[in-house]
Design a protein that fits this description.
There is one protein chain. It is built from seven helices and 31 strands. The strands form six sheets. Strands 23, 25, 26, 28, 29, 30 and 31 form a seven-stranded mixed β-sheet that branches. Strands 2, 4, 5, 8, 9 and 10 form a six-stranded mixed β-sheet that branches. The termini are far apart. The C terminus is likely disordered.
Length: 520
């Protein structure tokens, strides 16, 4: 290989090394600028609660910064780097070349015989100057490390979203909230709405993440072009703020501002619809209760037993098209009829809730009444107690013990029974209800202990039950203990007493046991 060819290869190595150094420096500048700009812009957007305007401005600024860094840190330096610039840089860094590289580069296309001698002379100097000296490995590694570190930190912020910096970085680079709830938000309800003319409409605003905001509502009525501002007031007994449009006569456009956050614009459309004059309610109680239907001529709130069907007759001041009963859970019940402006619908009373009368307008439900309550009352089981004896009882083997029970139920008793067992044997049942259907009853039975052939130490356990059409209750267990004849018995010592035998009497022994009713 000739000296000219060797020197040409050497100059190409210098150019490639300088290009590698320029590329490394430009990449480090670009990634560092991206990271630094992201942090600064997120801090600025955070001060403005990440409002839509601040995010849009920050993304535009980030684009400009990245474009500037890419052009001036990478694009222009690479575009300006050519063979002559690489040689000039090498001459500046290594003066011992004494312009030999420059002269060779300028004349390398000529047939000048002296170029061979010039190349040989330049090669002698180049033997002591490695091309890597133009961009040392240490510098390249440092630039590479800076670029990788900046890119890594930026990607971590965008993907892991740590704190408000990560949240803002993700929002800035992707335009989304990373699937999580916004760090700062302003929720306005009801948003767009349709209401009946001259009725009130409550607007609520819930700032989230915004400390001590001043919340304002801006409204522009259909008949004016000027925006009106009003301060929203804290909601009593709840978080957030509220404002009431009272008796709205026309359409209105509005939005809410809380600190640096601004909600979208919403519209309230006013329409002419009938008003509710009267609601008549007919209650059809469950058949098992035996209760007759009840009518409320001027009803509204529904209060009835679970399972009751409430038929509503709604009277309006003029014809109503597409009338609805709207329940609190969103369920809609169509109103039928219409003769003389009377409309019918039915609500099954199954749980507590609310409802209101509405009409469909352009496919949207428009409220015609205030909320009415639905109160579903649960059926209580019957109550029963052992009135006599008043607790655990001690008796002689030949005593006759009177057991009396008292039961009651709001829908009528079906059964009232005394259950007893001797020494844990088979349970026997004595029915004491005289007339099924009674709402209150007292019954009794006499247990002749002599018939059971008991001996001292034996036990008779007993309890009482009461049933209605659906539910059953029972008392706690109580005991009759058989004692020897030698014990003295006094009827006066036993609260509630025992019946029968001449020597009979007894005393309660376990005050912890109560004859009160116990639900199953």
């Amino acid at each position: 290989m000739s000296a000219r060819q060797e020197l040409d290869s050497y100059v190409s190595q210098l150019e490639r090394r300088l290009r590698l150094g320029t590329l490394s420096r430009g990449a480090a500048i670009l990634t560092s600028a991206a990271l630094g700009a992201t942090i600064v812009l997120v801090l600025a957007a955070n001060a403005l609660a990440f409002s839509q305007g601040s995010i849009t401005g920050a993304r535009l600024a980030l684009f400009c910064i990245l474009a500037f860094a890419a052009i001036f840190g990478l694009g222009i330096p690479l575009a300006r780097l050519n063979r002559r610039r690489a040689v000039g840089t090498a001459e500046e860094m290594f003066p011992q070349f004494q312009q030999r590289l420059v002269t060779f580069t300028e004349k390398e296309g000529d047939d000048d015989p002296f170029l061979q001698l010039l190349a040989a002379d330049a090669l002698d100097v180049a033997s002591g100057v490695e091309p890597t000296a133009l961009a040392p490995n240490a510098r390249l590694l440092a630039l590479l490390g800076a670029g990788v570190a900046s890119a890594g930190v930026l990607l971590w912020m965008i993907i892991a979203t740590p704190g408000f910096l990560g949240y803002g970085a993700h929002l800035l680079w992707t335009g989304s909230h990373a699937g999580a709830a916004p760090l700062y938000d302003l929720r306005v309800s009801p948003g767009d709405a349709t209401i009946r003319r001259n009725t009130d409409e409550l607007i609520t605003a819930q700032p989230m993440g915004i400390l001590n905001p001043r919340v304002f509502l801006y409204a522009r009525y259909q008949s004016t072009s000027k925006w009106e501002q009003v301060a929203m007031q804290p909601r009593p007994g709840a978080s957030g703020y509220q404002f009431v449009f009272t008796g709205l006569p026309e359409n209105v456009e509005y939005y809410v501002e809380a600190g640096a956050r601004r909600s979208p614009h919403f519209n309230i459309r006013v329409v002419d619809l009938p008003s509710v004059k009267q609601i008549k309610v007919t209650y059809h109680y469950p058949s098992w209760t035996g209760m007759k239907d009840a009518v409320e001529e001027r009803g509204g709130d529904l209060r009835a037993l679970e399972g009751t069907r409430a038929n509503l007759e709604v009277l309006t001041d003029r014809p109503l098209k597409d009338g609805l009963l709207v329940l609190g859970d969103g369920q809609q019940i169509r109103l039928s009829g219409g003769e003389s402006n009377h409309y019918q619908g039915a609500v099954q009373v199954e749980k507590d809730g609310v409802y209101h009368v509405a009409a469909l307008d352009r496919g949207q439900s428009v409220r015609l009444s205030e909320d009415f309550f639905i109160e579903a009352r649960k059926a209580n089981p019957p109550t029963i107690s052992i009135a006599r004896p008043g607790g655990d009882y001690r008796a002689s083997p030949i005593e006759e013990v009177t057991v009396a029970v008292h039961a009651q139920d709001e829908f009528g008793l079906k059964d009232a029974d005394i259950h007893y067992s001797v020494n844990g044997g088979a349970e026997k049942v004595v029915r004491v209800l005289k007339q099924p259907g009674e709402k209150e009853a007292t019954g009794s039975s006499v247990l002749a202990l002599e018939d059971f052939k008991l001996v001292p130490g034996d036990l008779v356990s007993l309890y009482a039950t009461a049933k209605d059409a659906r539910l059953e209750s029972h008392t706690d267990m109580m005991f009759i203990q058989v004692d020897p004849f030698e014990r003295e018995f006094s009827q006066s010592q036993q609260s509630g007493g025992g019946g029968g035998g001449g020597g009979g009497g007894g005393q309660g022994s376990d005050p912890a046991r109560s004859p009160g009713a116990k639900r199953k």
